[in-house]
Amino acid sequence: MLGPHPFSLFPNPRLGTPGIVVLPAAGFRRAASEITSWPGYAPTPLLDLPDLARQARLGALRLKDEAARFGLGSFKALGGAYAVANLLLAELARTGAAPKASTADLAAGQHRAATERITVTCATDGNHARAVARGVKLGRKPKLTPHQRKEILHRKENGEAVREIAHSYNVHNSTISRLAT
Length: 181
What we know:
Elements: H1 25-35, E1 46-48, H2 50-55, E2 62-64, H3 76-95, H4 103-107, H5 112-115, H6 127-136, H7 146-157, H8 162-169, H9 173-178
Antiparallel strand pairs: 1-2
């Protein structure tokens, strides 16, 4: 059996539960087609872990290495960015600003004037928030929520480096520097 390791394994208790569908097959195909067309997309490498597999008495064990995923280090870079891209496209269509826009158009900045007026926020400042910020960059500059601004000011007052704060919110150093204390 496995010896002590610096991680825990938690099986998904809902795996195979009838009626639990995260993303229907057609939605998955649309998302996969879109995401794989993005500049910088690459399949996630799987790293073989033969020693650990042997210890666990498994034929093979592989680690999905997301460290390079769009520079965000998280698989969540896909879902959050995809959701924001769809939100921006839907809003452009709803308002009539660009009914036939694509994510390629957004990435090229073709609809920046319309999308920069759309505020996109996230209830976290972790991996998902960085992914949402990546999606927002498709058409506009990211915005900080009032809560995030308050947190940033507190961190600045406590002497944390502007560079570190900016990195944690996926914004430029100047965005953090401009916030008044």
